[in-house]
Each structure stands twice: as C-alpha cells, then as structure tokens.
Amino acid sequence: TKDKAKKEADRHELDMVIGENIVRLSSLEGVDTEIYKTDILPKLLNLIQNCKDPLSQQYLMDCIIQVFPTDFHLETLEMILDSMASFHNAVDTKLILSSIMARLAISTGAETIEIIATKKEIDMFALFKKHIDRILEEQGQIMDLKKLLDLLIGFLDFTTKAYTKKVEYVDAILESAGKTIQLQPAKSITEEVRKCLMKLLTIPLETFSLSVIQLSKFPSLMGYLNIEMQKIVAKQILVANTNSRKPIESRSVVQQLLLFLKPLIVGEGVSEEAKAIPYDYEDNLTALSKLLHAIVCADPAEQFQAIVDVKEAYAMAGTKKLKYLAPPLTYCLYKLSTRMYQKENTSEAEDKKTGISFIGKEEETKGFLIKIFTLAKEVTSTISSSFPVLAMKLLLHGVLSINEIATVDKEAKALATQYLDSALGIYCDEVVDSDAKTQAILLIIGTVERITYLGTDEFISLGQKVASLCAKLLKKNDQCGAILSCSHIFSAAEKPDPEFILQCLKKSYALCGTSKMTNQKYIVLYLHLLNKYVYFYERFDAIKAEEIVALRNEVKGLIDTAPPELQTFLEIFYKETTAAISMKSENNEKYKLLLCLLYTSDAADERSSVYLGVRRLIK
Amino acid sequence: VSTQSTWGYFIMELVLILGDFHIPQKSADIPDQFKELLKPGKIHHVLCTGNIGNAETAAWLETIPIDKKNLKIVKGDVDTSGTPEVDMATIGHFKIGLIHGHQIVPWGDLESLGTVQKELDCDILISGHTHIIKAMTIDSKHFLNPGSITGATSIMNSEVVPSFMLLSIEGYQANLYEYRIEGGAVHVSKCELKKSIEQHITYRA
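Output (structure tokens, whole complex):
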C-alpha cells in the first residue's frame, strides 16, 4: 500500500506536468483551428493511442476536451470520436462522450452551437448518435443499465440545449433508450434505472413543453415507470404547459395529452386515495383543472369537442376527484357560451335588460348553446349527490349564464327552468345544516333577483316560492334578514307590484319582534328594516312616509332601552341612517316630505330633537 | 382628535385591495404582469375580498404584506374554511370595512352596500363578487370594488378584465390607484379619496 500511495503520487505529478503542457499548447498565440486540426490534435491523438495505458488515455482526452475551445472541438469532432475506437478496452468512453457533449451544449458565443454547426456542415447529432449507438450495441447486454442510461441522459441534455426545435432527435434518443432496456433482463430495471428514465422523460419538457406529446416513444418509456413516477411526469407536462402560457389550440393535441395524463387522472383507484398526501393530491387536481382554461380553439365547436373529451377522461377519476374537476369543466362551458352571442345594449355593465345577437346562423348557434348547457348540467349532476352545495352553486351560476339566451329562446328557457328547479331541489332536500341553508338562500335570492327570462306572473310566483323557503329557516333573525332581501326580487319584476314588497317588509317587521327572544342584536334587524323602507319609499308611492316615521320612532325607543354595550354601535347606525335621509332631502321631494314628518314627530317628542339636528346645525 | 394639527407626521401606508381569484375553478393564474408588480416587502396591508380557490395562491398572498398580521381575508361564496364574513381595518384615519358582497342583495347595489357601510360605521367599504372594478363616493363615503384579479367570469354576465386596487393612505388623505389589464397592457388610473374632517369631529369626539 505504501508503494501504491507513492505510485499514486507519482502519477498525479505526471498528470500535472502533462496537463500543464497541454494548457500551454492551447494558450499559445497563433494556434487557430487549422493548426489545431492538422498539426496539434493528430499528434496528440497519436500519443494517446500509442501509450496504451487506459488511465492516461482517459486523463489526456479529458484534458484536451476541457482545455481547448468549443470551436476547435466542433471542427475535429469526427476525428476525436473515431480515434476513441482504438482506445484501450478499459477506457470508459461514455465518460469522455459525456464531457464532450456537456462542453458543446454550453454555447457561450452570440450564435448558438446549432447555427455554427450548420454553417460548417457538421452534423453533431449524427456523429454522436453513431458512436453512442455503437457503444450501446457492444455493451448493451453486459454493461450496467444505469450507466448506459446516464450516457443517454447526457446525450439528451446536449440535444435539447443544442437543438431547440428538433423533436425528432429527442424521439430517436428515446427510441435508443427503449431498445437498450429491452436488451437487458426485466429484473435489471431497478429504482435507480427508473429515476434515470424519469430524467429522460422530463428533460425535454423544459424546451418543448407540450410538444412532448409528439414523441411517439414517450408513452412506452412511461410504461416502465411505477405509478407514482408516471404521475410526477404527467404533472410536469401539465406544469410545463401552464408555465409556457401557450393556449392549446386543437382538439387532437388535447386528445393526445389526455393519454399522457391518464396516470394522473385515474391513479391507482380508491386505495391510493386513502394514503395520498393532501398537498400533492390537491396540487395534481389543480394542475388538471388549469389545463381546461388553456384550451382555446379558434372554432368554438372544436373547443366544445375538446372539453367533451376532457370530461370523458375526467369522468374516470372517481367522485372524490370530481369535487375539484367538475367546477372548472362547468365554468369553461359557461365561458364558451359567451363566445356565441353579443349583447346589444352596452351602456351600463350591470343593466339587466339587453338585446342579444347570435354569432353565426341563429338556429345553429341556439342549438349549439343548448348542447353546451345540457352538458354543463350533466357535469353538475355527477357531483350533486356527493357534493350538493357545490352542485347547487354551479347550477345557480348556470341560470344566470343562460339567462340572456333564455329571454329569446324557448328551449333555453326550459333548460334554465331545469337548472333552477334542480338548484332549489338540492336546497330543499340535500342542504340540511341550518347555517348552510342560511348561506345558500342568499345565493338563491341574489340569483333570482337577476333573472330576466320570466314573465311578470311567473317571476312573482317564483319570488313567492323563494320567500316561503326563507320563512322556513331555522332561526327567526335569519328568516327576518332573508325575507327582507326577498323584497328585492319583487322589485326586480318587469312590472313590480309594491304589494308584494310591502308584504315582505311587514313579514320582516313581525319577525324582528319575535327575534327579541332569541337574539340580543335584534335591534340591528330593525335598523336594516328601516333602511329598506326608505329604499322602497323612494321608488314606490305605495310605501307611506308615515309608516317610516312610526318605525323610526319605535327603533329610537328600542335603542334607548338597549343594553349599554350595544348602544354606541346602534346609535351610530341610526344616526347614519337618518343623516342619509337628510342629505337626500336637498334634491328630492319625497325625502323632503319624509324629513318634514320626522321633524314633526320629533317636535312632539322634545327629548330626541338633538339626533337629527346635529348635521344641519354644524352646516 | 388632539394630535391632528401637524399633517406631516403621518406615515404613508400602501394597501393592496384584491380578490375573486377563483383559481383553478374559473382561471388558471394571476396575470404575469400583475405578479411582477406584486412583490413581497413593498405593501403594508392586504385586504382580500375572498374567493381565492386554492391553498397555493392563499400562501402566495401571505407573502405579500410586510407583516403577515396585516393580511385580512373575508369569506366568499366559494370559500369553505374559517375566514370571517366581515372584517375591519383602521389605516391612517380611515376606517375600512371588508365584505365579499354575495350576502348583499341586490348584488352590486350601491344603496344596499350603503346600509352595510352605516352598520359598520366605516369610511371605506370594500366589496367584491361582481368582478367589476368600481370606485364610488357618496357623501364622503367610499365604496370600492377591486374586481377580479384574474378576470374570472362573473355572475353579472358582463365583460371582465383582470383588475385590482392599491390605496396609499397618509393620515386623512388617500390616493386610489386602479390597475387593469386591457388589450394585453396594464392601465393605471388614479383618483383622490378624501376623509371628511367634519364627520370626524361630529361622530368621534
């Protein structure tokens, strides 16, 4: 061992000396490509071949590669590669190849290596491939699979960096990989090998992103990976696509992509879901969702077909995953529908009354729209039993999406009614929790208020149906608030009848009274009621100012007797309400009248004169 | 009320107002141009109207304010977990109320929002849900809607552009910046929000 150590040291010194010489050679002035090609390199290669010592050969090749500039190597590539054939058997030519490729891949000049090579008519790829293929042939059955794949990884790295558009080159490399694996027995496909394969499959993603689906050899290589790795690769493809910000413009691309994504969509089934890491699970599904938003085809019909393809693929994912996948599917369909028509009245963005004109032939477009919304409804029905609230929200959104079209088309109106009925059905039957019901009814009220496709009578009866649902809420104060909001439905009708509005207000008033028992903050309900009275008083003659005055007096009284910790807050709310009336009275006759009556009432009750007067006095 | 004679001693605080992401249900991501503008370390407060849609974006949002405590998020109609329905923040001399807006019918109706503003006793009420960016001032009370930062489809069935708002508050003065992406480019518009001193004396003394 002492001898060995000394030998090592000696050798090392020798390495340094020779290495230095080569470095000196390379830094000599006047050494250009020609001289290198004709003089220097052949002599060096001769020396290397003659020395017949594997370690030296390896070392010297390495020196040459690292020391001389890439331009030189480009010109002499063929020479170097050919000479390696005559090296000692023990020399690991794979390492040498890898280091040449690594050097060439880093293009430091203004022109890429690809352009330089094309100019000089040097086909780097072909040269490398020839030699690599030969190595794979010779060593394919005996050499460690991992080492062979490492060589291919190096080759792939070089190819993707040097040739940014040649998908076929990448496919050729993948083909070589496939062949190499087949040469060896099945048991040699270890975890290590799989990791190499994963690298082979993910390196192209950076430069090619979605074009990887054009690689015909990709799926067969994916097949060698286990499910977890397949999912990772599939996810990488999705992420690469999202990051590239490029839309997916054709249905065929979507179909191809879905094949690649199969492991991500289906996974291993129910057993795997149980032990899935929550973050990864959600992340994967988020990536699948984002895919839908990237699909933008020039032809809406093609886009629709692409979405159908995605829906079919996602249907195999299982109900639990549909919680994440159904909403983007539905919303993409709603969004697609907006491409098929234009609203004619563009004065106010929130104006509910608009005329519409269809893109293309009217009958055709209407039929297409019906198809879109029918499919969307189908999607929501896949989750209505497992995730009812979510399905209901999707349906309510759908009602408003189809609203415009339903104003001019009977079939659309029938479909819209189906949407609404399903939503209300879910609300009545599936939403059980009282808090959930309170939340949900607000969404229903808000949606119904914006519906314009129903005639006045139908609309009023729908409003009454919703109002009756409000009355069935568990807590009195929730009932009160909901019915108060319902009043807006009746005011939104084409020919609103203030009777119904008054009914809501009065019902709400009664509930305020009964809330006293259960809710300390019930006085707030009175204040909201007061504000609503003022709102409708301004718009409808049927609401009388006297009623407001009476209500206001009652509220004032309640505030005076409220517990002290609530008083400040209530007083501020009250003051702001009355101050608003005062402000509006400057320009509005009705408010002037109201203000007058309020003052008169105050005069009769001196104690409260300070409340309204403050604003006016300071002015 | 006592120390307000010296105007120069207020610090300027930047408030980011945004919401209605709906990622990944209605949109894939926040527009790159907006992500570029919203880097950590520059903004003091973040007020979010809700409907973020996924954990990763929520985590990104947490990195924006200089102090994580100054991030306020309220519950949208899509959110399921524990954010409050309403939240408040006092920045400079402005009392700001934050609510998603789906709870207030009719959706986007200014007067109905006005009732909420009275109840919360705030100078500025921020709400979302309509995905339409809007700033209105009625009687020195400001109503702000930052729209949808991703330009997600809206139930109001109108054109939506990606948008958000930035407030720079210095004591009694505030400047509002509206950011929109229209035709592929970012457009910024500015207006001033005033805090009424008269009101201040009347109600706070």
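Chain A touches chain B through 53 residues (CB under 8 Å).
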